[in-house]
Amino acid sequence: MDEEVDPDCEKVNSVLDQESLELFHVLCCQTPPVIMRLWNMMPTETGWQNQHSSTSSAAASVEDRIKAMLEYFREASTVECRNFLLSVCMQCENIPMRLESRLMSVAGYASTDAVQNPASASMSLTNTGGSFDSATNESDQKSSTPPFEEQLIKRPRIDHWEQYVSEVMSLLQRRWGRLTECLVKEVQLEKVWVGPRTANKHKDRPDQTPNSADRGSRTPEPDGDYGYLESKVTLETFLQACTGKVTVLVGQAGSGKTLLMSCLGQQWTNGLGPIPSSYLFVLLEFRQLNVVSCPLSLSDLLFQHYLPPNANNDAKQAIVDYLLSNPEQSCWVLDGYDEFHWKLDKKKMQSEPLDFKEPLPVAELISGLLNRQLLAGSTILVTCRVRDLIDFDGLSDKVGELLGWDQHMIKEYVSSFFGEKDRSLGMQATDLLLSSRHLLVMSSLPALCNICCICLEHLLLEGSDAQHTQLLEEEGSKAVKIKLHQEKGGGRGGDRSRRESHPQRGEQSGKREGNKDILMFSPTSAGVPTTLTQVYLSVISAFLSRYPNQGERYERPKTSTFSQSSVCALASLSQYRSELYELARLAWGGLETNKILFVEEDVPKHVLELSVKTGLLSQVELRCHDGTLVSAYCFIHLTVQEFLAALRIMTCNDISDAQLKKRFSLKTRWTTKSDQKTVFTDSLYLYVCGLSSPHCTEALVEVARASGIKGIQSWVKKRQALVLNLLKALCQNNNLTGPKILQLCRCVQESQDHQLAKLVMTVRPTLELRNFWLSPNDIDALAFVVNSVGDDGIGLDFRACSMELECLDALSRCQYIHYLSFRSRKYGDKFAEKLSSILPEFKLLRKLEFCGASLTATGAASLTSGLQNCPHITDINLSDNNLQDEGIRHITQIFTKLQSLVSVTLGRNNTSLKAVEYLVQEMSSCLNIQHIHADGMKEVRVTFFEKSDVNGHKTKLEPTVSLLNQKWSKDDMTNLAKSLTRLPALSVLDLSGGQWDEEILRTLAEFVPKFRISERIILNDSCSSVVCVVALTTLLSVCPVMELHIGLQNLVQISIIFNGKSEKPVSEMSKKLCLSCCNLLPADFERVWKSLGTSSGLTELDLSHNHLGNKGLKKLLDVLPRLSEIQEINASNNDISMNGVVMLAGALCSRNTLKHIYISNGGKEQVILKFSPNQSNGKEQMKMFRINNSNLLPSNITDVCRRLVPCRFHLELELLHCSFADRAIDNLLKVLPTMSSLQRLNVSNSITSTTEALTLINCLINNQRITSVELSPQSESLICFDRVKAKQVSCRLAYFCFKEENIALMERLLKNLQLSQQLSYLDLSNNQLEDEDVKILVDSLPRLKISSFVNLSNNKLAQQGVLDVASTLCTCSNVSDVDVSLGEDRRCLIWFSDKGCGKTLSVRESNLACDHLVRLAEIVSNCPSLTKLELKNNKLQSEWIEDFVKLLNSSQRVYTVSFFISVEEHWIRAKEAVSLLCRCLELSNNIQTIRIHHTTLHLSLMNVTQLTTISFVDCAVDGYQLASMWSIIQQCHLLTELDFSYNSLDTEGTNFLCSLLPLLPSLTSLSIAIKESTVSVAEEFSQALRQYISIQHLNLSGHVISDTAAQNMTTFLPRLRSLNLSRCVWSAAGGMQLMETLEQCISLEDLCLDYVQLNEKSLLCLAQALRKINSLQSLKLDGWRMACSGIEQLTKFLPVWKELRVISLSKNLVSDQSGEKLLEALSSCSHLQELYLSSNSLGDLTAARMALVLPSLTHLTVLDISENQIGTDGSAKLSEAIKNLKNLNKINLTSVGTSDLSAVAASLVHCPVIQDVSLGWNNCGDDVVLELARVLPFCHKMTRIDLESNSVSVCGVEALVGALRSSPALQIIRLWRNKVSSNEAHRFSLTERRLNFSST
């Protein structure tokens, strides 16, 4: 036995000698106990141990001992050497398989004695070095298994292991042999390129998919773990050092992952590649693992689903044991994770090792391998697709992506496919492939490149002649070269069929050599498929054409072109429609169930045969549960299965519209852990969109015929329309993320629908694409969509999108881009260089952004070369790059070449001030630069003047420069200043920030006079010392500098302002110096004054917020004489005290030019002096001294006022918001009489208490110059003085409280008022007087001298107070009117008059009770001069009114003159109105007239015996309700007037009135105007009036007058004196009769024919009639539209009507010229009272004539010229006319065509009785309102002003509020639609209720 296995001595020793070096490295890695045991095998007597026992270094000692051992045993005997090698194999770990196998083979088996070490027992190691001290203890603790037993265990394991490894090698060699049978090219790992990625080792990688709120607006940040890297390495390099790690290789479907893994295995079998040949190479396919449904152990996985060993169970156990003992000696290749049905559930992963014997689900088993819970240290290589990479987060150590083929590699493959003999055909195929974007992109994947070659071969061979076709048929089924390293087709499956129907290349090319029938195609041929869908249609046709028996079913044409290729495709589809229909069904079923492998039972036999022979299906081996192999089939590529599934959708009615909609959705490129796992490429919807194109309709119809659908063509078109509609909905969705938008573009491109493409861009004018990979195919789809918009242009925004330079070539096809943006560090100089080459292609490009990138000066130079050929570009943004100064210089070179530039942004580019200098220098040559802005270097921007700006300005536009927060040195400032001096012009220079020192500041100051700056220099935050202030102050002496502003507060602000482009001489220009917040002391003021030199031309000086104090103020006042041109000095916040205030008061009197002084807080805050240097010293000059917000002591008042006494000018003293100490007001009262120049004392908001107010009222007693006193704690408090003694004084105290305890304030006030002079009015409104105090005041009224009114409004009066006020009519003889209301306005006015006219009492909204009416009746009885009583909305009941009438009837008062009573209540309507009228007539025999108008009862009482007038007007009375009046009216024989207008006179009412007429012999006036006309009413009345001869006044307004009625009216019209036929309707004949009759009305005085229709004949008759009427007093012809001719006729009659009072000609198209003539004619109507000319076309001519005519019409009371076209000149003339209208009480100027009505408003002061003014809809501003506010106090009778729809602001409204205080009679001011906000309007309404901001 020993002889058989023992090698000879030379062999054993020679092997040890050969392997000594590798064995040395193995031994160096072992533990010290192992080395000890091997060392002890050497005999002690040899001396080797003693030689190395004293080594000083432990590490060196171990290495030396190992070398010594190897050297000894190389020379030792065979037995010793064999025993040593055997011990090494038994005791050492991690020996390479190759080395261990060789050593074991030469060592052989040994006996126990041979293995044992004879010297081990006696060997002592105590002196072998420190490194071995612990070795003995460790060895003692180890298992004491004898070495021989270890050998008996390990040796069989190794043998079985080696045997199994050998079997695996055979398996992989056979597999590789099958795969390489039909390879077109040899696989070379050193030529396969991989893009390394950074593996994500974090367990919890965040999900970066945007949520619903982010979609369309935000994209994830670039993923650093899986971001694209531009570097690439070969696969061979990538896999180096992968042993012991988990490596993931990703690639697209068809990129060759499976083939490469097989190639890796083949290299392993040959001892090549990165995996050592001693390792076990396990190649598992996930598609095979999918069939595993039961749990299995690691051994089951290895032996049942990889390779069962040819051995018994013991051998299997030995293999597993060895694998477990040496896991690092195994390599597990897990191919195709993308096909795995399950996902790795990392939640179940634990760190504890798994039991290798325990059966686990296959997913958990794989997870255990990857998570190192099984076979820790083994090498694992996984292949998958990119989207599955997220499942390996935290598991992978190394990640790489297979890169697609470039064009060079594609050309090589095409050349290899067609072979040398088919070179001509290959060149044509190459040209066609490179000319088609879709074919080129497909060919970047090896599997699809093979398919493209087969397709191109088919298309090119369609032109072969019949003889060649016959040759092909005779050859039968021969194999063709098919590229099999495709992922789902030829890549996976060892026994897949790779034989095809075409002959071999060599045979084929030999037959075709020199053949003239082969087609020659142009790469731009129209027949090249334009969409991916059409490409796949051609692919399917090409594969179907390879069926061997097709010649029997279809004859190909001898010649063909690409345009005919579609015909050939249709023929193929038609020929095999049933088979293709079944294949589509199979594909769809697999897609629905996520299935790609099919067994024979899944496919009909004939379809399977055709599919395999044509190559559409490939055969693979599938290992079952029991380990047996069966045949399975899959489509040649996943995209082919998806395309056929799409074909199924579009041709089969089994798939409903709902199913289609469910499948139709856009896919994002962002993957998440929650995504559902699928094997497919998600291209289904893309092909569905492509098949919806009309170009595919015929093909779909052909395939769909196999389904048997009726009306197949219409069904197909309907399905296509459904897809397009779904696509349209997606186009309109503006919430899509970038990837989905891109997918949408691809879908639209496939559909070839340009309208959809245009819709995409309409919804989203700018496409934002962020943080995902872009391919040239994506950009090509984008170009299709972009080019649909036309000249409108779109924007493209690429952010963090990875793209190759080839994408830019595709981007150049986008013709209509106006905005292009690139933002990512991935874009560098090479990218910019490529971009620059295509920029000129974008003819519409306006804006380019290249931000946040890696651009340097080199890239900037490239970009500029391209940009200079973009003449229309306006905006360039190159911020956040690395251009540095040189790059900025490159950019500046294009400024002059791009005339359309608007903005260039260059911030954050690692630049210095040199770059800024380049920009400034460029301004001298590039004159269209508008602004250079640089904030540090973070923000650098250059803006340019637009052409429209340059051409649109007469004056030349000047640029600005802003260089903020720069770190200046003296040299930097010098260089910049020199550059600035070379600029032709500059408007603003901003150098803020930087904290300059004095030296830099003086350097700048030296150059300032040389700058050509028109506006200002800004130096904010640049200096902070007084020294710098003094240095800058010297600039004010430089001629161009006009203003200097310096503020050294927290934010230092410095501005140097120049004279600009002013044409004024320098001597006339104002100079300003502002030294605010500069911490100036009095001494500093002197330094500043010296630095100004001779700058006497200073006009404004601001010294606020310093520390000058009274001492500095004194110095300032001393230099005033030298400031001859000064206009204002601001010395606020300078610690000035009241002593300084007194000094200022003296200065106001002594300095003639000093005009105003404003002081607050006793001088501590505001101190402002204003001058008027150019005014004369005449006394007409007004001076003002104002103290605000100060605490004033009596001494302060005395000192200030005494200093003001000598003032020789008119003086205003204002003490605003001040608080007076005790006796301060008394001191003020003492000194006031001595201040003879004082014109006004303003103490607003200073008099806050009633006591203070009453004290100040005492001034009325001692000062005869006072004209008015107005005191209020909430508004202005003024005391005004006259030059001499005032005749009258007005007094107003408002908002005070007279209820203070123990002080008889009201008595005190009244006592003071009694001692004062004559009062014009007394206003005590808003004082909370209540009834008690009002009673005191009312009792004192006879002792007060008041000429106008007393205002007691808003004083909380009750009904008793109302009656007390009303009683003044009896107690005060000079009280003329009392107006009281307890409603919202709380109105209470007592008017006085010395004239003996009748008195009036008005009580409104006072909620009177019955007893109040009794008291009121007493007042009426006791006041015989009371002529009018108005009771309005007092909630009176009918019985109370009746009682009141009864009381008046029974009173002792004699009604010698008419006493008028009006009672308005809302219930006085209809039946109640009739009843009330009857009761009043029954209860009183003094009623002369009784009227009810709307809801108001009007009574006229007089001591007469008969009623003369009854009137019901617009009070909703029905005819039947009049019957109750019969008994009363029949007793009124002297009734002269009856009015039932605007009620419901039905037949009953008409009959009632007609029956009354005979009973009323004295009736002279009848009015029955109606709103709703009927024919019968007019006929009956006209018939009745024929016999009634006393009627003289008739009103039939609104009636329909029939011809019969007109005929009747001819009998009584001649005797009428007044006739109203307005708005009547008649026939032409009826109108003619009436107008003819008017000729007989020679006594007619009033005629109203408003809005009636007359023909020409009738008009002539009317003209004849008017000519004969001489007594006319009122003529109303509104709405006739008589125009110039009618006015001309009318003007002829006007001179005759001397008694004319009223004329109304509104809406008559009166022109300006006719208006002038009309006014001239009216000059003879001296009694005219009312003139209505609204809604005409009157203008300035008419207004000018009014200025001449109206002064002569002294009786005019109403003027209405609204809605005309009067201009500014006409407004001025009109104002002259109004000044003479002393009796005018109403004027309507609404919408007169001009807003310049200030003069008109001012003229109203001359109209003392004016009551109603309308100025609405004129766009009047505050100027008009301010004039109105000025005149209101003089218009005491003004009740209404209309200012709606103007341009009145808050300022104007505030003026009105002030004026209303002195206009108590004014009831409302309408202010709707003005420039007052709703909040302000609400505030004003609360303050003054008479302001109305609503539309009603």
- The poorly predicted ranges are 1-10, 53-57, 109-152, 202-230, 464-526, 550-565
Kindly estimate the percentage of residues that lie in beta strands according to DSSP: 15-25%
Shape: elongated
- Based on CA atoms alone, the radius of gyration comes out at 57 Å
Give me the number of helical elements: 73
Task: Kindly state the percentage of residues in helix.
Answer: 25-40%
DSSP strand tally:
63
N-to-C span: 129 Å
Mean pLDDT: 83
Structural class computed from helices and strand pairing = alpha/beta
Largest sheet: 48 strands, mixed
Structure in words:
It is a single chain. By secondary structure, the chain is an alpha/beta fold. The protein is 39% helix and 15% strand. It has 73 helices and 63 strands. The protein has a 48-stranded mixed β-sheet. The chain has a seven-stranded mixed β-sheet with strand order 2-1-7-3-6-5-4. The chain has a two-stranded antiparallel ribbon with strand order 8-9. The protein is elongated. The termini are far apart. Residues 1-10, 53-57, 109-152, 202-230, 464-526 and 550-565 have low confidence and may be disordered.
Describe what is shown at a glance.
The protein is of the alpha/beta class and 1896 residues long. It is built from 73 helices and 63 strands.
